[in-house]
Specification:
The protein has nine helices and six strands; from the N terminus they run H-E-H-H-E-E-H-H-E-H-H-E-E-H-H. It is α+β, with helices and mostly antiparallel strands. It folds into two domains: about 80 residues, Winged helix-like DNA-binding domain superfamily/Winged helix DNA-binding domain (Arc Repressor Mutant, subunit A, Orthogonal Bundle); about 60 residues, Arc Repressor Mutant, subunit A, CATH 1.10.10. The strands form two sheets. A three-stranded antiparallel β-sheet has the order 1-3-2. The protein has a three-stranded antiparallel β-sheet with strand order 4-6-5. The protein is elongated and about 60 Å long.
Length: about 170
């Protein structure tokens, strides 16, 4: 018999993950040693989604499992998908750049290392950074997309909002 908590934990991991996951990862997540049991939980989840006639499905390919929108609904809802997914290392570089908006790429490389060249390209391609030639280097500035995607209200803004609603 499949335990509800384990099933929910695997379902939550599938939902939140942006990539396909292996049964081994679910074994680590749940602490369950038996891969056969993990696979039976995954099969039961797949069956649950099929029986409900859900727009979501759990798929398995090459031993990896993923949760996704069924093909027949994808065209109509894909506009709501996140525009961009960036790597964790590029995200760390972006955090550094956000504290030093307008930094020269050459200065960034001196401070952080040469690995940032790939990160900068990824961030420019994703639309979070603008790179403008500045002498022999490039000036890196944050874009409006970055500001909309990452900025949140400051504590002062929150206090101002709270003050106006009282």
């Amino acid at each position: 018999m499949i335990m509800k908590e384990e099933k929910q934990l695997i379902e939550a991991a599938l939902f939140i993950s942006s990539r396909a996951m292996t049964a081994e990862e679910f074994r680590t997540l749940t602490g369950i040693g038996a891969l056969g049991y993990i696979k039976s939980v995954l099969e039961e989840l797949k069956k649950d989604y099929e029986e409900r006639g859900s727009a979501i499905e759990i798929t398995e390919m090459d031993g990896k499992y993923a949760m996704r929108v069924r093909n027949e609904h994808l065209q109509r809802v894909k506009q709501f998908a996140q525009d961009t997914e960036i790597s964790k290392s590029a995200l760390r570089t972006l955090a550094y750049i956000s504290k030093n908006d307008g930094i020269l790429k050459s200065t960034l490389v001196k401070r952080v290392g040469t690995h940032v060249y790939g990160h900068v390209k990824e961030l420019v391609d994703a639309g979070f950074l603008k790179s403008q030639k500045s002498g022999r280097s490039s000036k890196l500035t944050l874009t409006e997309k970055f500001k909309k995607y990452f900025t949140q209200e400051t504590p002062q803004q929150a206090a101002d909002i709270e003050q106006t609603t009282l």
